[in-house]
Design brief:
Strand order of the largest sheet: 3-2-1-14-15-16
Largest sheet: 6 strands, parallel
Structural class: alpha/beta
Number of strands: 21
Helix content: 25-40%
Distance between the termini: 57 Å
CATH class of the largest domain: Alpha Beta
Strand content: 15-25%
CATH architecture of the largest domain: Alpha-Beta Complex
Shape: elongated
CATH superfamily of the largest domain: inorganic pyrophosphatase (n-terminal core)
Radius of gyration: 37 Å
Number of helices: 19
């Protein structure tokens, strides 16, 4: 069975994804699809780093699909199928359409289905106020067919496609002699079954003769009308009713609000934006447009109940500040992680797998074994790369004996020497050629909140001291700019030396220095060198975040 894209479950890592986030997502998606083919889709909530790209290229694996927002969109709503009508349709037709649909807004579309504008019930009410304007039909260039439709009439002679451009509307209630003082060439006149009045009106050059009360039109009158190039319409209504109805023949485009002034949405518009717009305006209904402004349908407040929430599995994170935007609108099904318990809440029970290991890839490898699914060499390569990256080639204090054992098994399956992979992986990651300070800062950057304080911690690992020094120079000027960008009060950045097994911590923010000195007692800033040198500190998860949180509590 083919799985529709909309039905697929997204397996996704954190913002600013590192190698573990990307590779574990790919491997876990592969496992899930082995067990339930085609149901799962690997996604990413940020750009691919140079280190991760090296891994993907080496093992010839496509990156996860970019997905930066999972908010409910208009396409997830029940959009009302309210057909559009022609701009030349009558006000009466617009009213009938509103009555049939139950919507007080009527879209106006062209022959290709593009939205030209909308007309509301209020607009139609204003149009009926022009009932005393005898020239409204000609002034608004009304098609003869509109008059036929409104009066439920029958064309006796003349062209229904003809457009009225001059003349007034009147009721021929007087004697034929009186017509000389009221009728002009090009007028639209309504008469009853008096043949003398019909003849007089046609001889005076009326453009449209409306014969009321269902009276038969004689052959003599029909031929006279044709010779005068007049239109003769026969209707069942009396002259009073016809006079009331005929104003509704005016084309609706003269009453509509043009598209340039209409607030509309696309299928991709977030529902939150729709709600804000509805709160800010008096309008009730809003058009939904697809490509090339093609009209799709209408939405209103009664359509705002989401029918299709995105379904997610989170890998390598569970902090809301690190999650893809729009998480609150999504349905969370699983969490696979190795960090501290975060702040995510769910309305239903979920599968939650959080273990104290050095890398999410270790957990994913265990899941393959538990499900009895064989790990392919390229998947083993991805998982091994994630392990090497997250544990700094098994040297990080976060590394557990289980990580080491898992690494050995994966290396054997992939046919790779971990040291060789590590050297090339780290070299690709620390290469700064063509990178901006922003690229370096956000290649592995996470946001946290604690006690009402929002802060960010980034990390980059280096084999080369020269590259580390260059990154330091780039970041010193850039870090203060991230405060306003991310809405943080403090930001920290770990420049980690893989060889020396230590980190230089750069920082920005009013209380950042004091927080670090509290977090790492005995360490202080050096006037000759930027930041704080932290020997033996290489793990953000185990050595930095807990210390910062403890300092904030104090």
């Amino acid at each position: 069975m083919d799985i529709k894209v909309d039905d697929k479950i997204k397996v996704i890592g954190h913002k600013n994804p590192d190698t573990d986030s990307i590779c574990s997502v790919l491997a876990y998606t592969n496992l899930k699809n082995k067990l339930d083919p085609g149901r799962y889709e690997a996604c990413r909530a940020g750009e691919i780093s140079a280190e991760t790209q090296y891994v993907l290229d080496r093992f010839q694996v496509e990156p996860p699909k970019a997905c930066f927002n999972v908010s409910s969109k208009v396409e997830d709503l029940d959009v009302a199928d309210v057909p559009g009508i022609s701009p030349m349709a009558s006000l009466r037709e617009a009213w009938n359409a509103m009555r049939d649909s139950g919507y007080t807004t009527q879209p106006i579309t062209d022959e290709e289905g593009k939205l030209l504008g909308v007309v509301t019930l209020n607009d139609l009410s204003k149009g009926n106020m022009d009932a005393l304007d005898a020239y409204v039909l000609s002034r608004e260039k009304t098609p003869v067919q509109n008059i036929v439709d409104v009066l439920e009439g029958e064309i006796v002679t003349g062209d229904p496609k003809e457009i009225l451009t001059k003349g007034k509307v009147l009721v021929g209630a007087g004697t034929p002699d009186a017509f000389e003082n009221t009728l002009l060439e090009g007028d639209i006149v309504m008469v009853a079954n008096r043949v003398d009045a019909q003849v007089a009106a046609l001889n005076m050059g009326v453009k449209v003769l409306i014969v009321c009360l269902g009276a038969d039109v004689s052959k003599q009158i029909s031929e006279l009308g044709a010779s005068k190039n007049s239109v003769i319409i026969k209707t069942k209504y009396d002259t009073y009713a016809a006079a009331r109805l005929i104003i509704q023949a005016v084309p609706v485009n003269n009453m509509m609000t043009p598209i340039s002034e209409v607030r509309y949405f696309t299928p991709e518009t977030p529902v939150t934006e729709v709600k804000e717009a509805m709160d800010e305006t008096r309008h009730i209904h809003f058009p939904v447009l697809g490509q090339d402004e093609k009209y799709i349908g209408l939405i209103s407040r009664r359509n705002l109940e989401v029918k299709n929430h995105e379904k997610l599995i989170l890998v390598d994170h569970q902090e809301t500040t690190q999650c893809v935007d729009g998480l609150a609108d999504a349905q969370l099904l699983e969490v696979i992680d190795h960090h501290k318990i975060g702040d995510i809440q769910t309305s239903d029970p979920i599968y939650f797998r959080c273990e104290p290991v050095g890398c999410s890839a270790t957990i994913v490898t265990s899941l393959y074994e538990e499900k009895g699914v064989k790990i392919e060499p390229k998947i083993a390569g991805l998982l091994l790369s994630a392990l090497i990256s997250d544990t700094l080639l098994f040297r990080s204090p976060t590394c557990t004996p289980r990580d080491v054992e898992t690494g050995k098994k994966l290396a054997k399956i992939a046919g790779i020497e971990p040291e060789e992979l590590a050297e090339n992986l780290f070299a690709a990651g620390e290469n700064l050629e063509g990178k901006t300070a922003e690229d370096v800062c956000y290649q592995d950057f996470k946001l946290f909140e604690h006690g009402g304080i929002r802060f960010g911690v980034g990390q980059a690992s280096f084999m080369s001291s020269a590259n580390m020094q260059k990154a330091e120079e780039m970041l010193l000027e850039y870090l203060p700019k991230t405060l306003a960008k991310d809405g943080t009060s403090m930001v920290f950045f770990m420049l980690t030396s893989v060889k020396e097994q230590g980190s230089r911590m750069l920082f920005a923010g009013d209380n950042a220095e004091k927080t670090l000195e509290t977090a790492f007692a005995g360490q202080s800033t050096d006037d000759e060198e930027p930041g704080i040198m932290l020997p033996g500190v290489v793990s953000r998860k185990k050595q930095v975040i807990p210390n910062i949180l403890g300092a904030l509590d104090k």
